[in-house]
């Protein structure tokens, strides 16, 4: 990596969303607290800092309406929880009862999405802090409320001054993840990398792309100001977002039988030229993802000349190939040129808001694509059953916290024993594998953080310098809180130790206590994962069926196009979106399942093969959509046969139905065994064979379920 690129990455980090947000949050917490401490008001300073800190934890990327709603709910929730905690503090039995019900109720807020899940977790942490720190009187509730409102006001002011800031970052992240996926696609043309490894990377990268696209839709399509026709920048960002998602489809549509491609073109130089062209395209995408939209100075893309030179060489290689091979390479070249044109189009839009041209093309009904976010009682009530994973998680966490509370009442665990409960709340997650991962990260981060704190306390004696280090550690915590849990714990641990050392008159004993509190909390949290567990293996077959249904619906839209039935962009793009989301849901659940005990996993090799086949299937459907205008009506029967086969596969995965779907012997051959060039040229043939492969795979999965 050259020096210029390193400087660019440092600049991107310092100007990026996470660091600038962390800097704003840190200043919003320490400045008011510092002023109050300077005025010799330590109790108000601690209460205001706590209020600002807790509400800052809920301040994640979103529209101004999202932030306003989340903050108002969180402020009221924190105030009520603090009042209940202060009132119950003198009565240990009452405190235990309220802790159980508050923990359960706040955990159930997960029903309403990640925003309110974070608010619920912060409220639980607040109650534990009040029990541990024992602030005096109801005045603490007022200080807490003041700090929450103060931070909320600063956050809204920041968003009002820079209204399109989060949209820009969301588009940048979407472009960056798409760039990563394109880099993975280049690996398929490298004979030295096993195809299985390529598919694994492609599936995992798709998860990040799907997540970025969903967040982009959530922020952009639900932002009333940005979506208004009179807002030129908002409309430009909308167009850029739409083209970015369409670009991803263009990239996924480049799919061939790669064993055949590698064998046929290994010595012609075509594979190397393809990789070089993709590298230039990814460089352009990386440049666009890092640029600031609509700024006064924008650098132009620099790869057009290199791509022209590589295209000329590629066309020469094509001219030397046989007719069938030349047709394959020509089609691939057309796809690469289309990707290049789309990248240039996105660059033009983000360079100049006024460059967005008005076309007569029908636009999708955007409100259908915005993730639905609403708070209704019936959503909550629907999860009040033991079969609900959220209910089981909430009950597990509430019982575990109550157990830790009772443990602290009967045994002398030290002055800071409330950190056992904090550790439990932070670590325990709905999924077993996530809890185990957090456990490891928490332990590792705490040990490293304590080591850093001890070194500082040994060498630094000046209080001002220690406070400065504490501020840096707090900044580190908020910078990585949403992206790297390990690094956030490494930042949080020394910050707490330094603050307690300076203001708590704690001596060195509390460092040892911090270690064994964390160890106890991690052990209890891990043991609690076996209490009302929700194993991913029980959900995987359902998610496989949902993915098949999404692909069937996607094919039905393709069938409409081929049969010349009028099709709106809304219907087609919604079908495409659902396929992407279901692919990501299955892959995420599969990865979590791999982290569960071995006796709980089911047919992991078959599930992975099922994902790979569906990845190939959806890629070929996308390819057919792009060439649907040239299709003949006779193709209709092909599509219908694929739909029928996938429907049978979906029935196979329903373990509640009798095993009445059989597989004909004639259907058991695989397309990977057929080296017909015609089949590599036409996705229709691949679709039919892939559908048969999926039926075989589903039959094997069913055998493991029975």
UniProtKB/TrEMBL annotation:
Secretion signal, residue range per the UniProt entry: none
Keywords, comma-separated and alphabetical: Cell membrane, Membrane, Transmembrane, Transmembrane helix
Domain Integral membrane bound transporter: 404-527
GO terms under cellular component: plasma membrane
Membrane-topology descriptor: Multi-pass membrane protein
Stated name of the protein: Uncharacterized protein
Coiled coil feature spans: none
Spans traversing the lipid bilayer: 69-87, 116-134, 140-162, 417-435, 447-480, 486-503, 515-535
Localization (cell): Cell membrane
Domain Integral membrane protein YccS N-terminal: 72-340
């Amino acid at each position: 990596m050259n020096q210029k690129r390193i400087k660019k990455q440092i600049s991107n980090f310092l100007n990026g969303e996470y660091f600038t947000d962390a800097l704003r949050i840190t200043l919003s917490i320490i400045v008011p607290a510092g002023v109050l401490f300077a005025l010799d008001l330590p109790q108000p300073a601690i209460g205001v800092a706590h209020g600002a800190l807790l509400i800052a934890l809920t301040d994640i990327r979103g529209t101004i309406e999202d932030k306003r709603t989340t903050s108002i709910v969180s402020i009221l929730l924190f105030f009520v929880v603090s009042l209940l905690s202060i009132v119950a503090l003198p009565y240990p039995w009452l405190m235990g009862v309220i802790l159980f019900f508050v923990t359960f109720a706040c955990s159930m807020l997960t029903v309403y999405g990640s925003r309110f899940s974070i608010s619920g977790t912060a409220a639980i942490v607040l109650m534990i802090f009040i029990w541990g720190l024992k602030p005096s009187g109801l005045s603490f509730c007022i200080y807490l409320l003041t700090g929450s409102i103060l931070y909320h006001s600063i956050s809204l002011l920041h968003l009002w001054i820079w209204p399109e800031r989060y949209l820009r970052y969301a588009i940048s992240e979407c472009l960056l993840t798409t760039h990563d996926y394109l880099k993975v696609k280049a690996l398929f043309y490298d004979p030295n990398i096993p195809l299985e490894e390529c598919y694994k990377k492609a599936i995992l990268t798709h998860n990040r792309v799907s997540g970025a696209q969903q967040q982009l839709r959530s922020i952009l399509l639900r932002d009333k100001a940005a979506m208004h026709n009179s807002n030129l920048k908002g409309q430009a960002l909308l167009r850029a977002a739409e083209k970015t998602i369409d670009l991803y489809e263009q990239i996924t549509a480049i799919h061939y039988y790669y064993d055949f491609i590698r064998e046929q073109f290994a010595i012609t130089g075509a594979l190397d030229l393809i990789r070089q062209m993709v590298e230039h395209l990814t460089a352009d995408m990386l440049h666009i993802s890092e640029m600031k939209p609509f700024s006064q100075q924008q650098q132009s893309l620099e790869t057009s000349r290199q791509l022209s030179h590589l295209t000329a060489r590629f066309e020469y290689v094509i001219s030397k190939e046989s007719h069938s091979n030349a047709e394959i390479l020509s089609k691939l070249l057309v796809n690469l040129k289309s990707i290049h044109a789309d990248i240039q189009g996105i660059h033009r839009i983000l360079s100049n808001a006024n460059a967005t041209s008005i076309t007569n093309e029908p636009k999708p009904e955007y409100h259908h694509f915005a993730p639905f976010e609403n708070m209704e009682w019936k959503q909550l009530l629907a999860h009040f059953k033991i079969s609900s994973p959220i209910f089981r998680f909430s009950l597990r966490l509430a019982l575990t916290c109550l157990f830790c509370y009772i443990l602290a009442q009967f045994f002398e665990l030290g002055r800071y024993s409330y950190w056992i409960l904090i550790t439990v709340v932070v670590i325990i997650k709905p999924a077993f594998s996530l809890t185990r991962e957090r456990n490891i990260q928490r332990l590792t981060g705490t040990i490293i953080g304590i080591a850093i704190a001890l070194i500082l306390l040994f060498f630094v004696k000046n209080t001002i310098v220690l406070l400065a280090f504490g501020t840096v550690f707090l900044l580190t915590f908020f910078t990585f809180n949403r992206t790297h849990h390990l690094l956030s714990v490494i930042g949080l641990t020394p910050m707490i130790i330094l603050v307690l050392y300076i203001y708590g008159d704690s001596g060195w004993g509390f460092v040892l206590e911090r270690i064994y509190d964390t160890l106890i909390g991690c052990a209890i949290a891990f043991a609690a994962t076996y209490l009302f567990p929700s194993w991913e293996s029980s959900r995987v077959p359902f998610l496989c069926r949902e993915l098949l249904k999404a692909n069937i619906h996607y094919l039905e839209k393709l069938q409409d196009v081929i049969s010349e039935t009028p099709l709106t962009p809304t219907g087609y793009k919604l079908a495409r979106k659902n396929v992407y989301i279901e692919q990501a849901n299955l892959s995420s659940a599969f990865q979590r399942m791999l982290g569960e005990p071995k006796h709980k996993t089911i047919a992991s090799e078959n599930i992975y093969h099922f994902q790979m086949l569906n990845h190939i299937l959806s890629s070929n459907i996308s390819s057919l959509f792009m060439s649907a205008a040239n299709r003949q009506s006779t193709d209709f029967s092909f599509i219908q046969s694929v739909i029928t086969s996938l429907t049978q596969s979906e029935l196979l995965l329903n373990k509640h139905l009798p095993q009445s779907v059989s597989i004909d012997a004639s259907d058991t051959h695989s397309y990977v065994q057929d080296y017909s060039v015609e089949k590599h040229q036409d996705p229709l043939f691949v679709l039919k064979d892939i559908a048969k492969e999926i039926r075989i795979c589903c039959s094997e999965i069913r055998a493991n379920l029975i």
